[in-house]
Design a protein that fits this description.
heterodimer; A: alpha/beta; Nucleotidyltransferase, domain 5; four-stranded mixed sheet; 12 strands; 29% helix; B: alpha+beta; Gyrase A, domain 2; four-stranded antiparallel sheet; 3 helices; 4 strands; 19% strand
Chain lengths: 272, 168
């Protein structure tokens, strides 16, 4: 279903290294970036993770949020949570089973927080599959509290990797393995025929050789998802994507698209 | 962008989609249009009620006039017996009201039409003519006085129609 929430909306994204606010105008079939504000966070101020407190320095995070909101305006915002908080799963629910309940069933036993404190939702992934996401309510509440303290009214809460993937999942998209990079986690998605054929999500290891390790894993993902040939395209977006592309000799995205910064993953999903 | 999973921790009300919003807007417009139409119809109904009241009053007035005319026609169509209205008595009544400056040239009495009178009168001037009409109308036994066409250049010569009734 195409979302047609028309008008200008403010997206407030938080990740380990920075916070960003984007003012996006949504048309019937178009979206246009009007303003993008970004503020770095002190190292260690925010530690995105599935359990435990994420905001190690709430004052620093709130101050950075307040500064970006000063530039786009306060009011109702959509909060975009960083990669690394949620458990993601690509599944095909059996006929007659509600996908969300099937995801809850599949992920329930492996979650590091109580099942009754879990929010589960799904994103259509094409070919009858869905991406299921499970996240602890306590983690969400921590980010919502920080945004409210900065003067925002939180209307919706999205997950950055899902927003990025929704932009990639479009009819006619070329076959490729995408690395959607957050500051602390990465989501690898193999797209074929406009549908998601394979999905992996894990924490990043930014030590030397990260680009090569990621490329190997992306190749394995495409092979495991049934890709018969080795010449699959690798694409990187998000935090540090430019460095990883340079290390691998992967060409940069064509100019004229969404900004190729740390927020390119989720912002690209909004603007595609 | 596809529908995004929303992980907001607080309970929320059902959010409207654009289509739902559009339907809601269309419904509100239809409601406003219906209210406008209803107001217009109400004003029209009030105007029709006013017109109906006017027509009802007019019908009542016409009915009463018709009744009066019917009674008058009935009274006029009944013959008058010569015994109860001898010509001498009628002539005497007419002579009583005749002013000095007016003369009666001819008097016709129609007993079949209930004592209808036709008076050919010549008055010396308009004042005498007006006095004659006034006296005829005040006479207790002469009714339904209808003066005919008159010429007031010098003397007034005209025909007056009336009815003589035995009971005052």
């Amino acid at each position: 279903m195409v979302v047609a929430r028309l008008g200008t909306r403010i997206y407030l994204a938080i990740d380990a290294a920075s916070v960003a606010a984007a003012e996006v105008s949504h048309g019937v079939k178009t979206a246009r970036l009007r303003t993008l504000a970004r503020e770095p966070l002190p190292a260690g101020a925010l530690l995105p993770g599935p359990t435990g407190p994420n905001l190690a320095d709430p004052q620093a995070v709130q101050a950075a949020l307040g500064r970006v909101l000063d530039r786009v305006g306060r009011g109702r915002v959509t909060l975009v949570l960083p990669d690394g908080l949620a458990r993601l799963l690509l599944v095909e629910a059996p006929a007659g089973v509600e996908p969300r309940e099937f995801v809850r069933f599949r992920l329930g036993a492996s979650l590091p927080w109580p099942a009754d404190e879990t929010s589960v939702d799904t994103l259509a992934a094409g070919a009858g599959r869905v991406i299921g996401a499970a996240i602890g309510r306590a983690s969400v509440a921590e980010y919502e509290q920080a945004a409210r303290a900065a003067g925002a009214q939180v209307e919706q809460v999205f997950l950055a990797p899902l927003v990025a993937l929704s932009g990639l999942l479009r009819p006619g998209a070329g076959e490729a393995v995408h690395a959607v990079l957050g500051d602390v986690a990465v989501c690898l998605a193999f797209l074929r025929d406009g549908a998601l054929a394979g999905l992996r999500s894990r924490r990043r290891d930014r030590s030397d050789g990260e680009a090569g390790r990621l490329a190997d894993e992306m190749q394995r993902l495409s092979a495991a998802a049934g890709n018969g040939h080795a010449g699959v395209t690798l694409a990187f977006s998000g935090s540090d994507a430019a460095r990883l592309r340079a290390d691998l000799g992967v060409p940069s995205p064509a100019s004229g698209g969404p900004p190729d910064g740390d927020e390119a993953g989720w912002l690209g999903g909004l603007l595609r | 962008m596809s529908r995004q999973p929303d992980f907001r921790s607080e309970p929320r009300g059902a959010r409207r989609t654009a289509w739902q919003g559009a339907w809601l807007g269309a419904g509100a417009l239809a409601l406003a249009f219906a209210a406008y139409q209803a107001l217009g119809a109400r004003a029209e109904a009030r105007a029709a009620e006013t017109r109906l009241a006017g027509v009802t009053r007019e019908v009542a007035a016409l009915a009463s006039r018709q009744a009066a005319l019917a009674a008058r026609a009935k009274a006029g169509s009944e013959p008058l017996a010569a015994q109860e209205a001898p010509p001498a008595r009628i002539v005497a009544d007419v002579a009583t009201v005749l002013p000095a400056d007016a003369r009666l040239d001819r008097l016709a009495i129609d007993y079949e039409r209930g004592g209808a009178l036709e008076l050919l009168v010549v008055a010396r001037d308009a004042a005498a003519w007006d006095l004659l009409l006034e006296r005829l109308e005040r006479s207790p036994r002469i009714r339904d006085v209808e003066p005919g066409p008159e010429a007031r250049a010098a003397e007034v010569r005209s025909v007056v129609r009336a009815r003589w009734s035995p009971a005052p």
